[in-house]
């Protein structure tokens, strides 16, 4: 039986925390002093689980089977729903079918109109944000149910944003005011300069 020592973190992004940028040794570990790859080689990084090729093939097969089962179950559910809907529709009269189809079309039109209104509202909000000199990233936070609510949100955010910026500016500028030199200091400075120059 062929054992392989696998470092499962080999293909993970290297974060620089003890990762081996050159790659890890994943070669077969069967010829070293009768070692069959059971972590007896004195690994300093901790224990490394060893997998046989059969183990890896079985894991792949299990994963594949799980995905296939999940897909099949979703497909069966969708088919069952479609069959139930078709049975329900077959029992309806022509007028009832027409009314239901009309209702579906009306709801679709309504949803499309809402999407269009939302697009127009977002465009107006972006223009208002740029006029107020606010970041466009605020867009998702200010969108309201209508234009009036959205503009109210922009005003509220502008007020809060400006006050937060102002408080940060004041905090950074806090401290001692610089001393302004008076006439006597300037005379002393002038004397020192003349003395240094030998005048």
What features would you describe in this structure?
- With 199 residues, the protein is mainly alpha-helical.
- Among the domains are: 1-41, no CATH class; 118-173.
- It has five helices and two strands, in the order ββααααα.
- It has helices spanning 53-91, 94-131, 139-142, 147-173, 183-197, and strands at residues 3-5, 50-52.
- Residues 72-115 form a coiled coil.
Observed structural traits:
2 strands; 62% helix; mainly alpha; 199 residues
Radius of gyration: 37 Å
Tally of helical segments: 5
Mean model confidence by pLDDT: 79
Which secondary-structure class do the elements indicate? mainly alpha
User: Percent of residues in helical segments?
Assistant: 55-70%
Return the string of H and E elements.
EEHHHHH
Distance between the termini: 99 Å
Strand order of the largest sheet: 1-2
Tally of DSSP β-strands:
2
What global shape is seen? Answer: flat
Low-confidence stretches at least 5 residues in length (pLDDT < 50)? 18-43
Largest sheet: 2 strands, antiparallel
Q: What fraction strand?
A: under 5%
Topology:
Elements lengths: L2 E3 L44 E3 H39 L2 H38 L7 H4 L4 H27 L9 H15 L2
Antiparallel strand pairs: 1-2
Give a summary of the structure in a few sentences.
The protein has 199 residues and is mainly alpha-helical. The protein has 5 helices and 2 strands; from the N terminus they run ββααααα.
